[in-house]
Design a protein that fits this description.
Its EC number is 1.1.1.49. Catalyzes the oxidation of glucose 6-phosphate to 6-phosphogluconolactone. Keywords: Carbohydrate metabolism, Glucose metabolism, NADP, Oxidoreductase. It catalyses: D-glucose 6-phosphate + NADP(+) = 6-phospho-D-glucono-1,5-lactone + NADPH + H(+). There is one protein chain. The chain contains 15 helices and 17 strands. The protein is of the alpha/beta class. The longest helix has 20 residues. About 40% of the residues are buried. The mean pLDDT is about 95. Bound molecules: 6-O-phosphono-beta-D-glucopyranose.
């Protein structure tokens, strides 16, 4: 098998993401022999020796993978550069390290610049790596960039311009880690590989689609960031809209990066825009009050660390998206996401329309609609809800479930999102990364909501108790259409 050779420079190598996700992911790729010609330079402000950095890497592996096989050999590929983001001299030193590692490990000049640090430095780093010649290489050069990609359309555009002075669009890998999740990647396969679904995947047969991503965690130590973001920018602009795009897009003519991403762009372009007056008819915001989550008493959002005691920031969003194209006219896509809810779960429910006539109606039971449930996490699988005959004398119907669980069939843990995305970036497959056009459209849509919300204080905040399924208006949003949220358990 063709193993990619690569030098990865991780900016923000002493941070949480590197420790929790990136080192363990690279380790798994190494253990599976998907990579062996590689070196990693950890780049961060702190002073560390290579030895100290390697010790950190080993500790991260032991803590987060619970494995230690070959860990010394693995860690020997890691080097450290103590960096000053705004000093040209520091980039020149980094280039020197990169060139040496490149020849030592025979990496063919292939370079991945992974930005896993405060976003205010993204632009500077991209410009500097070009100016100081780090991108001047015989192999490929790719920029992998974490969220947030801007704070609004304007700031994202500004950031994109700066990045593009050093990297072409097809060299930029914008991470949305939901696109690395096994079951998010499965949406397309379920849709486009089954005769059963695609013919029904439209407004004639689908009543509505519900996408819920609920979390039990609060804002933890991220109050400062979250106050400027809220659930809208943190979850809706990226993860939620990406799932909607995958559910709504037309079949691509081929499974290439360009074809898939351009269909997603078209789906996002079809999102119905809202006037200022309409925003609060289509979208609901919430903020958690004190409550009980997993049997533990937790405080209200407004008393969390680094949070304004009168904060107007939303920790919950529910919304109704209309996709104004031929396929979806009239079918609501409901989305819902929040912190400090009752359970940690991401799930998609596709509700099919009722059949024209119910022969099995009786006074106790009404026929329940067919549902296709895609379980993204923590369980991974699919459930199909059908009606079948109730066992016994009378001809009555009863709901039955056909369930497929990803884990139990394959008998192995599905690889983590980051493992897949990192490997894809080394192989040059940008399919599961967001194209600039997707980012731009998502921001424009989200901006139209935040413009209204930021200029009107929500007097009902806090409006949901921690440990619940969100504020009452989120239910009313569906009730007014004659629908309800299917329970997520
Ligand atoms: C991140 C958000 O993008 O996604 C976090 O910044 C959120 O606030 C996280 O907790 C959720 O990801 P997952 O994979 O746990 O659903």
């Amino acid at each position: 098998e063709n193993q990619p050779s690569v030098l990865i420079m991780i900016f923000g190598a002493t941070g949480d993401l590197a420790k929790r996700k990136l080192f363990p992911s690279i380790y798994r790729l190494f253990q599976k022999e998907k990579i062996n010609k590689f070196a990693v330079v950890g780049v961060a402000r702190r002073e560390l020796s290579n030895d100290e950095f390697q010790a950190n890497v080993k500790e991260s592996i032991l803590t987060f993978t619970k494995e230690q096989e070959n860990v010394d050999e693995f860690a020997s590929h890691f080097y450290y550069h103590s960096h000053d983001v705004s000093s040209s001299e520091s980039y020149i030193q980094l280039k020197d390290i990169a060139d040496r590692l490149d020849s030592h490990y025979q990496l063919e000049g292939n370079r991945v610049f992974y930005l896993a640090m405060a976003p205010e430095f993204f632009g500077t780093i991209a410009e500097q790596v070009k100016e100081q010649g780090l991108t001047d290489t015989n192999g490929y050069k790719r920029l992998v960039i974490e969220k947030p990609f801007g704070h609004s359309f304007e700031s994202a555009l500004e950031l994109n311009k700066r990045i593009r002075t050093a990297f072409e669009e097809d060299e930029v890998y914008r991470i949305d880690h939901y696109l690395g999740k096994e079951m998010v990647q499965n949406i397309e396969v379920i849709r486009f590989a089954n005769a059963l679904f695609e013919p029904l995947w439209n407004s004639r047969y689908i009543s509505n689609i519900q996408v819920t991503s609920s979390e039990t965690l609060g804002v933890e130590e991220r109050g400062r960031y979250y106050e400027t973001s809220g659930a809208l920018r943190d979850m809706v602009q990226n993860h939620m809209l990406q799932m909607v795009a995958l559910l709504a897009m037309e079949p691509p003519i081929r499974l290439t990066t360009e074809e898939i991403r351009s269909e997603k762009v078209r789906a996002l372009r079809s999102l119905r825009p809202m006037t200022k007056e309409e925003v609060n008819q289509y979208f609901v915001r919430g903020q958690y009050g004190a409550g009980t989550v997993n049997q533990e008493n937790v405080p209200e959002y407004r008393t969390e660390h680094n949070v304004d005691p009168e904060s107007n920031t939303e920790t919950f969003v529910a919304g109704k998206l209309m996709i104004d194209n031929f396929r979806w006219a009239g079918v609501p896509f409901y989305i819902r996401t929040g912190k400090r809810m009752d359970i940690k779960s991401t799930k998609i429910v596709v509700q099919f329309k009722d059949i024209p006539m119910n022969l099995y109606y009786n006074t106790e039971e009404t026929l329940q609609p067919n549902l296709l449930v895609i379980h993204i996490q923590p369980e991974e699988g699919i459930t199909l809800l059908l009606n079948a005959k109730k066992t016994g004398g009378d001809v009555k119907s009863t709901p039955v479930q056909l369930s497929y669980s990803n884990k139990s069939t394959d008998q192995l843990n599905t690889p983590e999102a980051y493992e897949k995305l990192l490997f894809a970036s080394m192989r040059g497959d940008a399919t599961n990364f967001t194209h600039w056009d997707e980012v731009a459209l998502s921001w424009k849509f989200v901006d139209s909501i935040s413009e209204v919300w930021e200029n009107t204080k929500e007097s009902s905040f806090p409006n949901y108790e921690a440990g619940t399924s969100g504020p009452r208006p989120a239910d009313e949003l569906l009730e007014s259409d004659g629908h309800f949220w299917w329970p997520v358990e």
